[in-house]
Amino acid sequence: MPTSDDVCDPPLAESYQALFHDSEKIGQHSYDQDQGIRECELPLIDLRGLRSSDGDERRACVEAIAEASSEWGFFQVLNHGISRELLEEMRREQMKLFRTPFEKKISSRLLNDSYRWGNPTATSLKQFSWSEAFHVPLAQISDKNCCYGEFSSLREVMEKLAGAMSELAHILAGALAENLVHNSHGFPDNCNKNTCFLRLNRYPPCPFSPEAFGLPPHTDSDFLTILHQDQVGGLQLMKESKWVAVKPNPDALIVNIGDLFQAWSNDIYKSVEHKVMANGKIERYSIAYFLCPSYGSTIRSYEEPSLYESFTFGEFRQQVQEDVKRFGQKVGLPRFLL
């Protein structure tokens, strides 16, 4: 029999069952079950067009990115400049990291206490996450004081991936800004390794699937997110008021618009609600890069009249935290509508 030190999974089942018991008592355990949910393929965009010397070809690529961001809030990219070898190397390092015993993950200061699991503030099943993650600020990855423990090879791989993801995120953000304004030089401002994040996710097999969320429905509180996922599936997004399942593509990265870009674009680009459903038999891995500004950065529409009042990223984050504490869920951009 394995000892408690050998168990790598966090105590998700215990937390889930306790929530289920509490939710039953207060009548909050009903789910909108996804019956007959359809699978979709996200718009697929070849980024070679952005590097083309042909002006028409480049413009067509920019327009395709903008159209997908308006109609879907999500799209996939090919020829993105991040090698499959690097992504596979990151996946191997990620798997080794998550196989660390749970007690060590929560107590050894790995990646400077960036480990997260479940949802400690959840008061009902609808808020609970059947997952674990390392949510790492980019500046911390290269910090000589960052604790990698026995995972010394992880630092170099994370540094390479963070650099490549950062470059891609700024290229995409620049293209989206270029589509709306004549001179987008410098956009987005104040997004660098001191403000952006890399998140390593693992979704253990869940005996309660399909009832449990790997991640509950949410929108991202950033400019944009770049996601590399495995072939297990589970990502779903809201399209025309219905949930649709995203078909995995092994050659593509997924990009989605965040709340800040929706506000900056005056609702032209959409920050779309999405979730991850737990899998009953197979663990799932993903890596997400979040393009965020400094907390003091002001978010305002690129044009007037604006749909939203101006706000700093810090004010937005504080409001999200207050709403989660008060209502159990994020309210987000509607808080800042004029």
UniProtKB/TrEMBL annotation:
Residue ranges of every copy of the Fe2OG dioxygenase domain listed in the record: 192-293
Keyword Metal-binding: yes
Cofactor: L-ascorbate
A Pfam family reported for this protein in Swiss-Prot or TrEMBL: 2OG-FeII_Oxy
Keywords, sorted A to Z: Dioxygenase, Iron, Metal-binding, Oxidoreductase
One GO-annotated biological process of the protein: gibberellin metabolic process
Family annotation (Gene3D superfamilies): B-lactam Antibiotic, Isopenicillin N Synthase, Chain
Keyword Glycoprotein: no
An example Gene Ontology molecular-function term: gibberellin 2-beta-dioxygenase activity
Residue stretches in coiled coil: none
Catalyzed reactions per annotation: gibberellin A1 + 2-oxoglutarate + O2 = gibberellin A8 + succinate + CO2
EC class of the enzyme, as a word: oxidoreductase
This enzyme's EC code(s): 1.14.11.13
Membership in a protein family: Belongs to the iron/ascorbate-dependent oxidoreductase family. GA2OX subfamily.
Protein name: gibberellin 2beta-dioxygenase
Organism: Elaeis guineensis var. tenera (Oil palm)
